[in-house]
Amino acid sequence: MTEWDIKKLQILRTLSERGTVTATAGALLMTPSAVSQQLANLAKQVGVPLLEAQGRRVRLTGAAHLVLRHADAVFAQLECADAELAGYVRGEAGEVRIGAFSTAVPALVVPAVRQLREEAPGLEVRVREAEAAEAYELLSGGDVDLALSLAAHAPTARDPKFTRVPLLADPLDVALPEDHRLAGRRSVRLAELSGEAWIFGGSGPWSQITTAACEAAGFVPEQAHSAAGWTAILAMVSAGMGVALVPRMAASTADGVVRVSIGGDQPRRHVVAAVRKGAESRPALARVIEALKEAAHRE
């Protein structure tokens, strides 16, 4: 297979544009003898004559014009590569894989992706829904580049494997049946619900968050029903089967359910982004983190 030398092709292309060896040498800051030598070497590489004498000047052969037709395509592709690399350096190109828990996808990830589509259309973001703890397993295993999780279920800030970026302190509200005795209030204290039947998951982050919030208010919640999805939880609240804590970031609503703010020391869940230590310097990843911060700020 013929070896193609980009520099020599550029000299041939310039000769085609300028017409003489002297003009080519001036344009490329070379000597005329160096131009002639490089073109002679190119002819040896491709195995066909590229120049022929025409009086005191030279002209390109048919083979040279054929080579240049392909060279133009090569140079165009190299220009594209240069442009894409420049975009990569600015964080406007590349691929970033995100692992995120369910409520973070519509509230944070989707707005960030919409913003990036406008500002950096060459940057591709791939999203994978995962439980808060699973997101870190995916990050550690190299299956995602960024994990959106809850601080309470993430490795500590001292973990040498990850860099954590705080995004959002998401307030928790209480979901009540619309005919509940406290449904008309603007806010309630969590302790006022100590005798209620509670609905939350049997395990996992939301179970721990609900239990910790209630215990901080001075009581242990009585779990009447177990569910993990917001659709199921709110359907049971609507039916009067119990009450539940709901993160404000979760946009889920249901007929017959009223959300009431928790007064006093309102419980919150802290959302963090994490990357493998050192990866935060990648331009594309840094660009995604900034977009997530902006989405969190708008929440």
TrEMBL record:
Pfam family, any one: LysR_substrate
Coiled-coil parts of chain: none
Ribosomal protein among keywords: no
Domain (HTH lysR-type) ranges: 4-61
Protein name per the record: LysR family transcriptional regulator
Keywords: DNA-binding, Transcription, Transcription regulation
Organism domain of life: Bacteria
Family: Belongs to the LysR transcriptional regulatory family.
Listed Gene3D superfamilies: Periplasmic binding protein-like II, Winged helix-like DNA-binding domain superfamily/Winged helix DNA-binding domain
